[in-house]
Each structure stands twice: as C-alpha cells, then as structure tokens.
Fold:
Amino acid sequence: MDDILTTDNLCVSFGGVAALNGVSVKVGRGEILSVIGPNGAGKTTFFNAVTGTFLPASGKVVLEGREITGTKPHEVARLGIARSFQNLKPFAEMTLLENVLIGREAHMETGMLAAIFRTQGFGADERRQAEKARELLRFVGLARRADHLARNLTYGERKMLEIARALALEPKVLLLDEPVAGMNPTETGFVMELVRRVRAQGITVVIIEHDMRMVMGISDRIYVLDHGELIASGRPDEVRTNPQVIEAYLGGGKHAATH
Structure:
C-alpha cells in the first residue's frame, strides 16, 4: 500500500510549549486510520498542522509525494484534503442544500462571466452541482431535510451535514475530528457504516476520536499521542494491549498538559 499522506518530525509550539514534538505519521492510500490520545495530547493540533491552519515550527507534511507544509488551508482543500470540525459551524440561515453547494463551488465548470450573464451553460452546471449536493445529503441520511434551514438541525444532524460539506470538496483524504462525540450508540453505528462507505468510494479517512468502540471497530491502524509525542502505533489489537497506551489513558500521562 502506498502512502497518500505523511508527516515527518512535525513540531508545533505555542509560547515555547511543544504541542507536537517530532510526530511522524504515514497514512496508506485507502486506509481508515485513527489518531487517539487523552485530552491535551495534540490530536487537533496535528490536524491543524496538516491542513495549514497552524504553521509547524519544523517538520514536513507531504501529500502524494508533494510537500504542502505551511500551505494555506483553502489550497490544502483544493489539493485534496478536507476536514470536519469539533465545533460545528453551518451557515445557520441557509438550507442544508445551500450549505453543501458552497463546497461544490470549486467544481463549477463555468466561470464568473457565465454566472453574471446567467448563460445556458451556467444553468446546466448549477443543476449538476445541486444534484450532486442532494446526492451527498442522501449519502449522510439528510435528503429529507435538504430544503430546511441548518439552524433547525439536531446536534447529530449537524454532524452529518459537516461530513457532507467536507465530501462536497471531493477529497482524496477526509479528516474527521471527533465525528461521534455526543452521539448515542445507534448514531455511532450509523457513522461507522458511513465511514466504511466513504472508504469504499476510494477516499482515505483519518479520524480523531475518543469513542474506543468506534476506533477499535473501524480502524486499520491507530497512532497514539500523549502530550504532543507519538507513543505507539499499530493495529487495534496491538494498541489495545500496549502498556504505554494504558498508562496514558489510565495514569494521566507523565508530562504537563498541552493543547
């Protein structure tokens, strides 16, 4: 399996405190890979460094053999990495369909002049994008809510909309930040199946998650962070029994917390 995304010795610091300290990760094409660790381990910082939100102090991020370290977030998205966020921020006064269509903008085949003059080609393009957006809403189980305002969604539905918006970018790699946080077991099961279907479409998935039932049930491999350092990696059965991982979760780790 070739690697689609790698980080090499990635370091991120805030005010002299290391949030990530030499983190090297390899994500195989078509994998479902999880990044886990206690609160303050540096998991979201890792996502932020990969997607260009944070500029690493040192180290590299490589996508399909191309270094993208420090690339602006919108460029990283254009190159093929999309992400969901813990803090859900849909456009509340727009419909679900409109929210997803924003992510389809990069795939419009007609340009600004066609939009201004409302050409026939633009109209056909607009209809194609709307149908694709409705497909994505069906994919995440929100088809019946397509024309509802996003502010009327439940918490779980907002999570699904967030995933649909990320998929609208047609990514090669999808980063999911705690996709089942706050969900009940039925909803968690739906998300697990959804992630498998995403992978079946040829998209590599990297997950940050605290729900160990999901992590152990869905991951091909797992990386474990503790206070910014990589302490273990391997298959779920290997990670589950690793003494350092057990200590990090049950013993509270050995370093001062970082975020």
Q: What stands out?
A: The domain at 3-89+172-250 is CATH 3.40.50.300 (Rossmann fold). The chain has a mean pLDDT of 87. The CA atoms of residues 136 and 164 lie 6 Å apart.
